[in-house]
Amino acid sequence: MLHKRELPDNEFEDLNKVYRIKRKLLYWLLRTPPTESVSKENLEDLFGKKLGSWFWMRIRQPSKRTQFGQAIDMLAAKARSENFEAKQVASAIRHDAQFHQKWHSPGFELKFPGEFNEWLDSIKAVAEPFYDWLASEKGFAKDVFGLTGGDMTRSKIMQAYRPQSLGICGYCDGPLGEIGSKADANDCEHFFPKSKWPHLAIHPANLFTSCKGCNETWKLDKTPMGNADEAGIRGTYHPSLLGGASLISVVAKQSPDHPMRVCIEIRDESVPERAQTLVETLDLEARWSNDVNEKMDGRGVSVFVSKAFQDRFRGQAPVEAEIDELLDDSIIWARKNISKEERSIRLAAALQYQKDCHLAQIIQELL
Ligand SMILES: [Zn+2]
Question: Would you say which domain of life the source belongs to (predicted)?
């Protein structure tokens, strides 16, 4: 939610093709459900022979309906018996799918499942498996789905995000981790969690890379956009539609618990609840404060400053003006590298704090 992260155009287009096919299936089941259980012919009429057969294999195994097949039949049956409402659900899904184009329109909010909550389970049973297929090794086959860039898989999306992410988590400003290594912390994250907005699972503007900590420990199924109503959407940042890094102000202060420890505060002057949501969703103030304090020695002098000093003024006695300049340069460097270097936002804040409050002490330490 901090740094702007976007899927490159080619991958966006290919994933969007698959997503449109998913929506087509949902619209068909909701608007013009078949009179009996879904057949291979139905699917071939709707999608053509190749894609129709692809779906059929996931609906029927040799002797029985798969779970997905049962979900399809159940949604069709519900749509037959509640025909009028089913059409409204289809419209709500169509409306929501444009969230990335309408994010900044005044009054924009999502309609499903808020207005049609009792449809959530039946839509979810049909919509969510698309993510499992994306995450599977085969993913969506190029020739079946008419993709231009080869088969579409989750790992391909993660890799496509990688170069423009510069190895930095777009959510917390920490490192993503090395792909393929044991410490691989490159996770696939749904901004709108698929448990609550299954119709947006695999939507290309809803999938992001984040570090494992953000996805698996802090964000989990939390919903920074609240109920995705207007207030919820205005009260949060979005990884591609409204990055937070340039809108927040980050200040390091003396910790109330210990005079030599710092605590970090994150604010957004124009829309305070956006910063609040960020902090609450990702526990960022505590994480950043801990991280900065870990890098200080027991007396509160930044290890970073000492090292920079040794590098620049090897063997010389420190002069106040030079230390001051060194800190200024370091702050400028950290700010310039926001979104390009991990931890740069908290580093800039910590250095500013040291310059303002600990300059004399730093000089003392370096003597
Ligand atoms: Zn993170």
Answer: Bacteria
